[in-house]
Specification:
Helix content: 40-55%
Strand order of the largest sheet: 3-5-4
CATH superfamily of one domain: Winged helix-like DNA-binding domain superfamily/Winged helix DNA-binding domain
CATH topology of one domain: Arc Repressor Mutant, subunit A
Largest sheet: 3 strands, antiparallel
Distance between the termini: 154 Å
CATH architecture of one domain: Orthogonal Bundle
Length: 461
Amino acid sequence: MDPAANSSSDDDSDSEDRHVSDPVREAISTINDGNGVDIDGIYEFVKARRDVMPNYRDVLEGELNTRVSRNELEKVGNLYRIIHVVSSESCTYETTEPDSDEPAAVPDPPITSSDIPSSSSSGESYDDGVLKAVRTVNDGNGADIDEIFEYLKEGYDIGPEHRKLVEESLDLSVSDNLLEMVGNRYRIVNVTSEDTNETRETESKSVEDSDDQKVPAASSTDYALPYGDMPEAMVMEAISTMDYGYGVDIEEIYEYIENRYKIPTDYMTILEDELNKRVSGKELEKGEYGYKILGVTSDNMDESQSQAVAVADQKDPATSSSSAASSSSRNPPYDPVIDAVSTINGGNGADIDGIFEFIQAKMERILSENFRKHLEQVLKKRVSQCILEKVETHYKILHLTPEKLDEISEAATKAVAVSDQKELEAKEASEAADRAKKVLEENQLVLQAAKEALDRCTRGD
């Protein structure tokens, strides 16, 4: 018998024995639900079936990395999956030279995300890059596969053969609820409080048995973020996602970022500083209802933007920035309170509960109690501005008829008269106090003189 054949047979037997007795492959193939298995799951599986050394987890991590580099396993995020490579023995090839000494061609192993180098500029992983591409390219309606792929080509050494991997990574992100697909476009999932509660209830069962629980970072220097960006980069995304024209308050911005990142315990203070910095930098403005992104104006545009506007004004004066500014000044900003009162009003006006529910439905998200308290202050202000009138617990749009104007004018005249009278009385009281003080000082002088005269008489002077 050919010794080479025996050697080949022995190698195949050893390979089969290795796979049969391979606890790592056994763990992944047993536990895998289609998305892969993390290192904790593999470790617990092997530990339950074998006696392992004290530092086996470190050994296991090195073993998994080695297998990924050999294309035996694929790592997606923190999950490992077996790569099924089609061997040459399971394929048939036709050849015109059956006796040729050249070995039969073996198909190239499939390309995996581990074959794609990290971005040279940031060092971020490929899967992180896919999510970053969606956030960057997104124009409000999401980004399609072509736009995402073109973005990735700028940061990674990839070609057309990697397009399938991009699609798989996007599909996996959709299944993990990191992305949502609308038509053929992908968007970052906007997590609402209801979605968050459902997700937390689902994940709490698995988190109980996991060492990798979400623990808030101790300080602003201790971040552990899933997408690779600092939370400050999410401030503008939070506002642009949730703002319907009248701003987003700081609590809603905080909740939006908290649902996506592991943040430090002092992040509310950090967020306040970040928002104030952006307001002073004229990126944001703080209105009655929260923070809004500022459009580019002559006050906050840089030199290149000013030059571009000047050129555009010369080319088309009809659409110049000055005409746009005058147009915007003629159109008052949208006020959700006025919209709510005028829409709900059935003759008796609208109470604060109805106004709150109307705005909440308009914004398509659950508003905090902090917003309700703020709404009460806004309603009081609108009443003082004679925009609304309050009848018991209901608010109405104040229609200024001639009679109403006369009534307001009369009330204002009375208020001015009362104010003048009180001012006069206060002035007279102040003058009377000054006179009394002067009399008291004179009396004290007379008393002092009498006391001195009495002392001289007593001494016989």
